[in-house]
Amino acid sequence: MRRTESRAPAWCFHPALALAAGALHTASFSPSPAWWLQPLALAWLIAACDGARTRRAALTGALFGVGWLTSGLWWLYISMHDFGHLPAAVSALAVLALALFLSAYYAAGLGLAARWSAGRAGWRRALAFAGLWLGAELARATFFTGFPWIASGYAHAQGPLAVFAPYLGVYGITALAALAAASLALRQWALLGALAAGVAAAQFLPQDFTRSTGSIAVSLVQPNIPQDQKFDRARFDENFDQLTALIGAARGQVVVTPESVLPVPLAFLGDEHVERLRRGAAIRPLLLGTFLGNSADGFVNSLAGLGFAQPYDYGKRHLLPFGEFIPPGFHWFVTAMNMPMDDQARGRHQRALPFAGQRLRPLICYEDLFGEDVVASALDTGEPAATVFVNASNLAWFGPRMVQDQHLQFSQMRALEFQRPIVRATNTGATAHVDHRGHVLARLPAERAGVLETVVDGRAGVTPYARWLSALGLWPLWALAAAGVLPALRRR
User: Fold this and answer.
1) Which CATH number applies to 212-327+336-462: 3.40.640.10, 3.30.200.20, 3.60.110.10, 3.40.50.1000?
2) What's the distance, CA 1 to chain centroid?
3) Closest CA to 406 of 151, 224, 225, 181
4) Sequence-separated (6 or more) residues with CB below 8 Å from residue 413
5) Which of 17, 294, 334, 405 has the smallest count of CB within 10 Å of its CB?
6) Measuring CA to CA, which residue among 276, 270, 305, 273 is closest to residue 288?
7) What are the residues whose beta carbons fall under 8 Å from the beta carbon of 160, sequence distance 6 or more?
């Protein structure tokens, strides 16, 4: 079969345009979410790749990914340069290298879409591009422990596609947005019209799959301890006094601190400090961010329960590459940053904490990016399901701009998928209360010490998404991606 010439104007292939379109894609996420920019940016990418030769389409997809991920993950530079003390050039190159690595998924997806759909009918090309975009997003979320930060579906946590979250989840929304973008780019107006009508009708879909289990008053502590002072031994007592003062001022039924609010393992804490924490927990039970374990078995990034009727602790299971575990061959890089607690052990359970008629399910930092890891806690499988998700994070490593709002947006999507409220206790922001509909009900200003007092309505019940994700995992979405490609491959 003869290769067709590109249907897009030649200027569409300019590298600067691909980078700019990727940056426009980033603008669809928080802190100024404009969900409609996401399909528009993706539509430009598909139009530029449609009919192009495989290599050119792959290069365009890679450049789009680099523009998107460098502009969306630039805050990693802060952790490496400002706190890891790597040279500025090395830190910038490290961010670029990560973006290039992750962009390989999109290069492969766009290259294959251009190759397999060449010369096919418009609707088949649209399905192929949408299916391979979904496949690239799933690959980034899954391979090498996964790193789905600002995956394209998250841009729609507050848009009209959000109604699909309890049915399809974030990657199902990714597929719908990609198909809309492909239909627009390839001028498949009938398909685009059908999608628009479907989305309009979906606004009337049932959204109440969970019921109230009553309320609980929660105090969310935000100490606002600068990251460069957190591990300074000379400032430990001052920081500890500030922490205990905030805990003492709390008025809720339970108090939650950020992750690693104690910069040393709990076992290394002096008796006087431990006693002060226990006195406070005797008044109001406390979920304390610390490290548990020992030198032989390793230390676990944990939330330790103090003051509860039964002993409880939760350890982080999905660790962050480079920050919490060191991938093979990269010890030299992490050693150069002299990062404390840089190679941690994994937690051993995901049990919820029963308290005051609710079941609190901890999530530490970016664990709430992986709905497939969380879903078991949203079902009554062996023990009652969680009614409230509790996220403890410390984003002070990455500065105050962009990263806090992005992470809050991911929590909004998780709340929508499982119809569970999420409360977030962070060091510098975003400390917030998200209800089961994904609305931010309360939030502390960033970089300001304080306690967010909020009353949380717990929820019980199972969404359709939770039901099929628990039974089948992400495989139905992989199958959906393959189904999009098959019409383009048929009778070649």
Assistant:
1) 3.60.110.10
2) 43
3) 151
4) 153, 154, 157, 165, 170, 438
5) 294
6) 305
7) 35, 199, 203
Share of the chain above pLDDT 70, in %: 92
| H or E segment and range at residue 45 | helix 37-49
Residue 426 pairs in a beta bridge with 393
Q: Is the dihedral of CA 375, 378, 380, 386 positive or negative?
A: positive
Return the structure tokens found at 480.
């959906």
Q: What backbone torsions phi and psi does residue 219 show, to the nearest 5 degrees? A: -110, 120
Rg (C-alpha) for the chain, rounded Å, is 23
Map residue 302 onto helix, strand or coil.
strand
pLDDT digits (tens, 9 = 90+) for 94-133: 999 999 999 999 999 999 999 998 888 889 999 999 999 9
Confidence of residue 1 (pLDDT cuts 50, 70, 90): very low
Phi, psi of 457 (to 5 degrees): -90, 110
pLDDT at 234 over 90: no
Contact 223, 258 (CB under 8 A): yes
Tokens of 246: 């905030």
**Any idea what the Cα angle at residue 364 is, between residues 387 and 29, rounded to 5°?**
90
Q: What is the C-alpha separation between 335 and 325, in angstroms, rounded?
A: 12
> Which residues participate in catalysis according to the annotation?
259, 316, 365
Q: In degrees, to the nearest 5, what angle opens at C-alpha 245 toward C-alphas 239 and 248? A: 145
Residues whose CB is less than 8 angstroms from the CB of residue 55 and which lie 6 or more positions away in sequence, other chains included:
111
470-478: list long-range contacts, CB under 8 Å, 24+ apart: 470/375, 470/376, 470/378, 470/379, 470/381, 473/372, 474/138, 474/141, 474/142, 474/171, 474/372, 477/134, 477/138, 477/169, 477/171, 477/172, 477/175, 478/135, 478/138
Angle of the 37-49 helix axis to the 122-142 helix axis, nearest 10: 110
Q: Phi, psi (5° rounding) for residue 80?
A: -80, -40
Q: How many CB atoms lie within 10 A of CB 133?
A: 29
Element (H, E) at 313: strand 312-315
Q: Token pair 């109440």 is at which residue?
A: 208
Question: Alpha helices of 118-249 — where are they, by DSSP H?
Answer: 122-142, 165-185, 189-202, 227-230, 236-249
Cβ neighbour number for residue 439 with a 10 Å cutoff = 13
> In terms of C-beta distances under 8 Å and separation of at least 24 residues, what long-range contacts does 267-270 make, across chains too?
267/292, 267/293, 267/294
Is 0.85 surpassed by the pTM of this model? yes
485: Cβ–Cβ under 8 A, 6 or more apart, which residues? 112, 113, 116, 127, 128, 131, 132
d(CA 492, CA 490): 6
Q: How far is CA 376 from CA 54, 170, 370, 461, in A?
A: 41, 17, 12, 12
